[in-house]
Fold each of these.
Amino acid sequence: MEAIVAENLRKTYKNGRGIHGIDLSIDQGQIVGFLGPNGAGKSTTIRTIMGLLLPDGGHASVLGHDVVKDSLSVRRVVGYVPGEFSMYSDLTGEENVGFSLQVRGLPGKIGHAHELAGRLGVDLTRRVKTLSHGQKQKVAVIAALAHEPEVIILDEPTIGLDPIAQEVVRALVREEVARGRAVFLSSHVLSEVEELCDHVAIINNGLIVASDTVAGLKKRRVKRISVEFSGPSVDFSSLKGVTDLHIDGTRFRFTLTGSIDPLISILSGKTLVDLTVQDPSLEEVFMAFYTGDGDAKP
Amino acid sequence: MIVTRHYLRLQRLSLTIWAFVLAFLAAVTAGSAGAITQGNAFQELIGTLPIALQRVVGAHIANPVDAYIAIKFLSIVPPLCGTAGVLAAAGIVQRDRNKRTMDFLLSLPVARRRVVRDRFTAVIIGLVLLYAAVWLTLVLVLGVSGLKGSYGRYAIILLAGFALNVAHAGLALTLSFRLPTYDRTVRYSLGLVLIPFGLEVALKSAGAVPGLRYLLLYRLADPVELMMDPRGIWQSVLIGAAITFLAIRWSQEKFVGGDMEA
């Protein structure tokens, strides 16, 4: 069953920014990474799915519940970590998490919250305002997971966490996915997305510009090329799709976005010492979608 | 009740402080009532005022303790409790916007209408506690001092003040949807409580026509008039309830119909 579906989802702010037709599909048991630069529309997409913003058009649902007409059911089945810390700082962590559980009619899950707190190493009896940024983020993660939701939406969940806590959060996410939960993960930490996610959606200017598996994205469009000539070389800067060009004597290294055929053509008849074609890191793929000339778009 | 309890928990510190301040003022007033109303000193003081003002300040109230309590203290309870009430009501939605807790609140399975209704209920409970603290303190201190006050009348006067303050809170809630920030909502809400009170005192002292004073709402909780004729409580309760009902309904529609930026 599809856990999250968005079809032509639109939300435009007065300044013209927003999302302009988002299509997404996340299955249960799947973890999807959501990448994009600041202002690309990641949080708007998430906040619209959560019912915090009313869409101007299109449709979105979570486990079959319409995000506008049946927003309460959506929020009942979702665990959400907002992009910006959002809890009552005058209350303790336990009071915050307890409030979330009581509203859901699940006060008995507080034991699970304490179990999560133990794993993350945070004291829930302290007032939130006395906690460090990282500790607060841990409380937010606990509040999102304590009720054992079917769908988990995480907006930058590991931001501000120390490496050990980051790894614990990743382990928790993996466990939830193993239990069949769907996870929608927005992150700036590309290595985290690469490590955790089956699938990645990249958003820019309010539109999904790429959506594929991590391996598929890496293979499909972008390559890291290294070429060394023994004789006359080639002017790669004129080749369409070349970015990040570095020249070291007769060795040329660059990222190629788009088809590899023009490169093969240009190299034919040349004498090469070495040629390597590598799949790029996710970061290089990600950057290619913002620095390229549009070829990277699917 | 979960949302109501949660909002009361958020307000517990300010509520405790307000309760102590009001109880202290009530205790001081009730404690000094004996000394001031002993003999004829108080009546003589009132007798020096112009006739019109004597009626306004309650010279015609038979029991000098009642007159003293009404003039010295009961008349200032509504603006004080009203201040506490509008501060709490202004924050029903704006506090979360200001403190950036809106995303957390609205990500929970609780309807926006329920947030407004249940939090306003918390404001009402807070006002009930404050007024109860005032009345109990008056009863306690006057009783200990061996003075006889009209406790039933005090309760009626305080009930009228409570109805007025609930209406104030309702108006502050509507303001919170019209104004962009919490700070501005608080400023305007305080103006809503304190400026009419100042005008009411001025108009009352000048013997202004009663109709004009209705516009300021404080006429609904005039302690001197209610001490003489407590039947006026019904119009206070009805007008207060009507304003509150309309304010909550309007605020609920605004909250449900719009985005809520955190």
Amino acid sequence: MQAIVNYPKVRIGKYSIDIFPYWIGLLLVGIAFGLVGAFIVLTQGLQVTGLSNKVPWALWISIDLSSIALGGSAFVFGVIVHLLRIKRFEVVGRLAILLGFLGYSTAGMVLLFDLGKPFRFWHPIVYWQPHSLLWEITMCVVLYLSVLMAEMLPIVLEHPAFSNHPWLTRFPVLEKLMKPVRRFSHWLHGFSPVLAVIGLTLSLLHQASLGATYSVLSGRGLWFNQSAPVQFVLSAMGGGVALLFILSIIVFRITRPGLVKDGVFYDLARISGAVTLLLTYLRVWDFAVTNYYSFDREIALQTQVLNTIAPYSLTFWLGQAILPAIAGAMLLAAKRIRSFRVLLVVATVPVLNAILMRWNYNFSGLIASISYDPFTPSVILNSYTPTWIEFAVGGMVICYWLLMFSLAARYLPFHATDHPKHS
Amino acid sequence: MQNRDENTKDTEQSSVSRRDVLKIAGGLAATLGLTQFISIKSLASSLEAGSVNPDGVKWGMLIDINKCIGCNYCTYACQAVNNLADDMLYNVVTTETTQSGTEFFLSRPCMQCAEAPCVHVCPVEATYYREDGIVIMDYDRCIGCRYCQVACPYDARVFNWREPIEKSDLIPTFGVQEVPNRQRGVVEKCHFCSHRIDDGLQRGLEPGVHPQATPACVVACPTGARVFGDLNSPTSPISKARDDARVTLRLREELSTEPRVYYVPPDSAYKPPFQTGEE
């Protein structure tokens, strides 16, 4: 069964124009521009970036961390749909898996450029070093991307093009090829509870380890923090589900009205709101423990130095404490508010909070690093300015994300539910 | 009865069959098995890492800050031997101050930590401990993720942002290139001139005593501020120097990295200003 799809159109006078092709064209231009930058990085190496020995991780790592975090709804809804079997989330769960896949493939892509030796990206899979958090993250991301692909395949194959395209009858070879693929996808679909468990395990492992990547490094003051792994998991859940809320309103409520009941949207908002409140509570206590209860000279110096060059404390209080607290409470009260316009605006806060937290975390330890001299250790202020190539490559992967999302939002069969298992 | 079947399809009654339970259990078992495998493996590699034979030869360095005149010869010799560009220094000499404001020169090679953060974080085991405690790199394995750079509390690591230089300006004044160039895109570091140590030991020389078997920075030092040798041998030059020193310190000791580079602090740091002359 095909659902009715309303595509957004722009009305100029009496003409109404489908902006979709122009939007896709714009994204393709962005990707083409990024490919120029990507080519320069691959041929000339990382000297073309603004990175240095003092600030070796910067814009690309922040994009990488953020896109993994914002794919966090996939594991949450993998569990809700396939383990808890809450049927009303099934359609939204498909969007969550898509977002997970896009987030992780984007992260993989941008990391490839960030490696000094991009063509050795497979080394962690062969040369194991289980002490390293980065090794664990690489393995988890590789395995989880495979899980997400296995979860995506049955959804993609449900598209009518794979079952009744005229070519399938004209070229019998294609039909023959499709048969084992379909059987494989049915088999995979039967395994979705297992995939959900594996996905949950892998996600919790690496989402936490992304925080631990920084927080195990005792030499960097602000980074050395016991609660960072939990904060990273919670912000990935809160931000990921908030993003899912925003996009599911676009994909379902606006373009496929009636497919998902409003109650489901409210539930999404409430999940995100509850997690965001929990995160904010933890974040404020973490601030108190770091800066007040265990007063540390180096951390105080670092914060002071960071505040001289950037609104570091302000971004904490505004972006990670006050606004998320308000937004979390409002999202939790979604059923009372009932205005999707308001909720859409409010839901951007957990998303931006997840990005901001990762951005601040990455730069706080690098921009203000602690010197090693024995008697009068101080905080050294390092600087980093991204080059156009970093923006181009970063923009390219974001355009890739938007392109794949736009195509999927238009063509992916979110509605078909005639699984062989249930019929 | 027929109606019930149709109804269950749409209601949210969760009906988990035995088969599903088995599947989930299987998934859990597989994941658990994986974690077990990882922990066994990590245990194995932690045994490999450095802690093998703690009483064996462990190379270390002692730098007497009172003797250092800030001439940078150690840096130059290092640049010549490793063919390093001017912005890719393994060894750095900086001017620092004591609490009382007296300036001194601090020269800093790699600390060759016994609990090196860079070894712990490397995702591919490209950085590892040698039997003799030296923290060394496999440049063919490094993927250039720079986590080690981020992890090092001493800024001792440099990344090859560019292709290696043809020939350092300091060759041949301060020595000749003794190790091959590293490729663009890998991190590199001081290795205590491990090639000299290995060659020297094969020829029956004692590192720290014979210049051919001793790191270039130690040999180049005009004031003898740097002493090298086996920390576990009581007769090695470094053990004697440590015995002679009134007090030694290591950089950022509070991080428990257990550096194998010791410093004799400047006298001014341990003498109140009003107390002059020898005691």
Amino acid sequence: MTGRTLGRALVGAAIAAAVLLPLAFQGTQPYYLQLAINVLISATLALSWDLLARTGQLSLAHAAFYGLGAYTSVLLTTRAGVPVLLGMAAGALVASAAAVLLGFLTLRLRGIYFAIATLAFSETLRVITNQLPFTGRATGLIAPALLGGQRAAQYLVILVILVVLVIVSGWINRSRWHFAFTAIRTNEEVAAVIGVDVVRFKVLAFAISACFAGVVGAYYAHVFLFISPLEVYSLAVSVGALVAPIFGGLYTTAGPLIGAVVLRAGEELLRSTVGGGYPIIYGFLLAVVILYMPRGLAGLWSAASARLFRRRPLREARAG
Amino acid sequence: MVIFGVLRSGLYSLTSVGLALAVGVVGIVNFAHGEFLMLGAFLGYWLFFSYGLDPLAAIPIGAAVVFLLGAGVYRLGIQRVLRAPELNQMLLTFGISIFLQNLAIILWGGDPRVATVSYKASAVSLGALTVGVPQLVVFALAMALTLALYAVLGGTRIGKAMRAVAQNRLGASLLGIEVDRIYLLAFGLSTALAGTAGMMITLQLSVSPFIGLLYTLKAFAIIVIAGLGNINGVIYASLVLGLSEAFVEFYVPQGGGWAEGVFFFLILLVLLVRPRGLFR
């Protein structure tokens, strides 16, 4: 066993332990299980956002897919009697469909125009949800519980969703898709010239990313049992999904996850100390990261390890 | 209805012309624009509440304070990303926006506040219509300031320097214009305009830490309709937005709620159909 595989095994074991720990304490400390669920929701949103960002599309529409997933699932389960898990799957599908539409609409928009258009899309959905007669309008909707409301089982569900997403993300970063995504992100025209099907990959990335955002939105609804337009279509959802990868390290699998964990922990800490204004941490870190550490925590780590072990940070350098 | 639409567009144009200045001259799409407006509004409220100063009379003070704040933000943050990728600039201002909004929540709490000026409820009749005095005053003042800015940009040395820098940074610096100082000035001016608009809002509506985002987005809608960086189109674009909002409010059932979405819809439409903007 080489040092590298041993290190990986140790990291894997540590992650497994950390992941299973909340389950061990669920009887005495239900708060930690709840916190763990929140962290995993953030992590899934962050990593799914990063998938889309890998094609150079920095979207502010993640809340749109999150909200669509939530509303689709809640409406189907309460009005049509669909089982909750099936409702969640439908939520993912509807979110993906909307993403394909948005993807085609915004295909030619770049940078700031793209960001504004996606934000407008998301807010338009919020206004529509506020106005339609069957969505409960601004008051919101009450959602049925997932798996009879057992927290431990619910925790495993979001864990499974995240693991699937991690596998998808890892696969993308190892396959030919990685080169296609990176080429599109770096220079779309050149990518098209060298034979990358730009339209297909951009729209696909949108669909996959939204699929996970949608399923998490639905999951959120059935765990917290209540949704309202102001909450699920909130800009805060999109912001959280974007700050975590930027803070943790863009275009990697580990970066968004680490970013989400750190941010969520910081948020929890601030929530108990300053109360109302806790999202200040998102603003502060976003500004600091942009100004002082443009490649996020992952970048810091690869720079530090390169200095320590005198080797070039190959993998991360490729990602940056 | 037309009157209401037009009156509303005064405040819109004052807010957006500031953002257009930041975009056009400095080249920064400032997501925190509305937050400076929010700070101006709080300043107006505070000056009124503690010192009994009329928000309109306090505008010079508020504008100066917000100008300094904006200049500080420029020196500490914006200046460092002038040559960074566009998305980094956007994300930085986005971070500043979240930071300022939540700072306001921590400092002043999230409840809306209202400054009750003596003439708040008074109205005058214009022909067959009755119009609120604050609305009328704000409209006149906002339009005057917007036009004054146009005059400054068109006629004075500093305005010409700003336009020169906007056209070509290198060329302007070769002509002996201190580009960095112009940027600082333009950004400060841009935030001061937002702050002024904020103080006018104190007069009509309630003040809370959450009002910033809405105005950022509306200002975005307007400068997108005008064409990003096109300062002259802002007045027309503001009219388009103000009128279409009023139209929706009057003619669509439950229009109040739908009017909220008008500007998003306009953004989407303009970006998809004519991304260069309608007015150029």
